[in-house]
Amino acid sequence: MTESTAPITILLVDDDADDRDLAREAFAESHLRNDLHCVESGEEMLAYLRREGKYVDPAISPTPGIVLLDLNMPGLGGREALETMKGDPALRHIPVIVMTTSKADEDILNSYQNGANSYITKPVTFEGLVNVVKGLQRYWLQIVELPTDPANEK
């Protein structure tokens, strides 16, 4: 088992302000040292990842090591954003964990077919969310080897 020496940036994509706040609290409760950045839509996620508009400065919008993506958002939703991201050779290496309220078999299958690396149904309690964050921390930040950003290796 490896343990990363430098914390990675995590990008949370969720249109619900309460869910973003709960995620921040769950990260703090789990003692994660990782930098959590939040955006509110699929459009904003793609702008962040592509360093467009207000996200042009990498000091303000570092490339995430993981994206936590909600599916149900207005405008460009998570389903479409996932498909667009995984279709982009410059972005497809970034692992995406779908974290949504949907338990629909169609959403689960579609997410994996479009390149999601994991699919998690959002827990209904804060304690459940903390347990999910601890599980994410253990698996994604301590056990697996994450890819580095190919743009930084040139």
Count of discrete domains: 1
The top level CATH class name: Alpha Beta
Helical run tally: 5
In terms of quaternary structure, the protein is: single chain
Give the mean pLDDT: 90
- Uncertain regions spanning at least 5 consecutive residues: none
CATH H-tier superfamily: Response regulator
Number of strands: 5
* Helix-strand topology string: EHEHEHEHEH
Class from helix and strand fractions: alpha/beta
* CATH architecture label name: 3-Layer(aba) Sandwich
Query: What is the topology, as strand order, of the major beta sheet?
Result: 2-1-3-4-5
Shape: globular
Q: What is the name of the CATH topology?
A: Rossmann fold
* Share of residues in helices: 25-40%
Beta-strand share of residues:
5-15%
Rg, Cα atoms, Å: 15 Å
Largest sheet properties = 5 strands, parallel
Question: How far apart are the termini?
Answer: 28 Å
What does this structure look like?
This protein has 154 residues and is α/β, with parallel strands linked by helices. The chain has a single domain (9-141), classed as Rossmann fold, CATH 3.40.50.2300. Helix content is 38%, strand content 15%. The chain contains 5 helices and 5 strands; from the N terminus they run βαβαβαβαβα. A 5-stranded parallel sheet has the order 2-1-3-4-5, sandwiched between helices. Helix 1 crosses helix 5 and helix 2 packs parallel to helix 3. The relative contact order is 0.18.
